[in-house]
Inverse folding.
């Protein structure tokens, strides 16, 4: 560590000088590696494309891309080296540069006559394999305008195509935890135009060959009528659509999977509450329009977060989903918040995935304590919390 402000200033000047030396001749490739702590990407690869650069941030399983203007390259490298990473390699065609921060904070710099940079191993250079592949004729996707009649993805619908496949991947990852020897029962709350409902049915029944019934629920009669007609047209015998309200719907028989896509504001809470009450084995929920807490939360301790409307709004949305996830843990679900689609495509990019495993007492108590701490600090009264508390109170009254 650098001991004082003046020494830190000299240290940063030296680091910046070496970085400028590395990029003076506009390198065609830079690689930042050796993460300096947990939570950082495994590596960042910056490649020149014409007069600009593209950054590729690698995790264990994914690559996140962003564009970078050439004039910001030095700033980006200075911001990452020594904080997120401890090593930098760069190639400009004539020289190979190496810059390293030692464990004691010393800067080591070298250059040598260039050899070709290691070949780029990029996810987008390999054909992405999807659960629903292009050039497969899927009647619902054709009628919805996502595929052409030949099974090709319509250019303007490619984001929707990726979204569908991402949802199927997150569903498919958990199917092995369910009893697939018996009929699965799936409910889709607020199904709307039902493109996801049709594709879930198609994947489970037509691709995986599973015995499954899928029910789509929505409030609009015309939507329900059209969807039922389409299911009959495709001969999807175990796909049905019903008019109904999330708040008061009662299924017939056991429910295995509950899915919701962009159920607005507290509709997501009612869907999660119902899924819990039915002991659904798997919940996949993409929330939308999390306005409730934005109108409730106050905090003197975190006044800066309350002062700016856009900051407060985003924090309230994230707090809403964090509380929902914790409350699902208190009900016996192993719960994750996952990236549904890339943030560049939509800000509504979180998915709650919860698998009923019967979480231990300690995990449940910790999750609830964290919720209570947020409620105390910010004055938050989320709908799901109130629904579960009322249900618990009613159960206790019946027992007594």
């Amino acid at each position: 560590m650098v001991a004082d402000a003046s020494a830190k200033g000299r240290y940063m000047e030296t680091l910046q000088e070496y970085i400028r030396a590395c990029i003076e001749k506009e390198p065609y490739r830079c690689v930042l590696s050796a993460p300096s702590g947990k939570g950082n990407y495994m590596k960042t690869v910056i490649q020149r494309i014409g007069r600009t650069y593209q950054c590729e941030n690698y995790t264990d399983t994914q690559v996140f891309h962003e564009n970078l203007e050439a004039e910001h390259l030095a700033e980006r490298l200075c911001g990452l080296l020594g904080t997120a990473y401890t090593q930098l390699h760069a190639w400009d065609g004539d020289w190979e540069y190496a810059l390293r921060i030692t464990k004691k904070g010393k800067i080591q710099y070298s250059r040598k006559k260039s050899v070709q940079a290691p070949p780029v191993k990029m996810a987008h250079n390999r054909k992405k394999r999807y659960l629903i592949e292009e050039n497969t004729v899927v009647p619902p996707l054709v009628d919805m305008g996502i595929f052409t009649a030949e099974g090709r993805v319509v250019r303007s619908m490619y984001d929707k195509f990726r979204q569908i496949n991402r949802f199927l991947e997150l569903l498919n990852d958990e199917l092995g935890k369910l009893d697939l020897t018996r009929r699965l029962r799936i409910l889709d709350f607020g199904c709307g135009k039902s493109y996801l409902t049709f594709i879930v049915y198609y994947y489970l029944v037509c691709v995986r060959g599973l015995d499954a019934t899928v029910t789509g629920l929505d409030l609009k009669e015309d939507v329900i009528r059209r969807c039922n007609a389409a299911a009959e047209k495709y001969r999807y015998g175990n796909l049905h659509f019903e008019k109904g309200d999330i708040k008061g719907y009662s299924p017939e028989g056991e429910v295995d999977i509950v899915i919701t896509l962009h159920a607005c504001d507290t509709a997501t809470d009612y869907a999660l509450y119902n899924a819990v009450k039915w002991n659904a084995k798997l919940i996949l929920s993409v929330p939308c329009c999390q306005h409730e807490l934005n109108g409730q939360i106050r905090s003197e301790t975190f006044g800066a977060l309350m002062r700016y409307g856009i900051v407060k709004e985003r924090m309230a949305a994230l707090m809403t989903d964090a509380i929902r996830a914790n409350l699902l843990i208190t009900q016996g679900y192993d719960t994750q918040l996952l990236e549904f689609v890339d943030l560049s495509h939509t800000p509504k990019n979180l998915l709650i995935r919860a698998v009923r495993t019967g979480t231990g007492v300690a995990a449940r108590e910790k999750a609830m304590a964290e919720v209570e701490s947020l409620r105390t600090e910010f004055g938050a009264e989320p709908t799901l919390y109130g629904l579960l508390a009322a249900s618990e109170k009613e159960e206790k009254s019946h027992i007594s």
About this structure: The chain has two domains: 5-125, 139-399. The mean pLDDT is 86. Residues 5-125 form one domain. Residues 309-330 form the longest helix (22 residues).
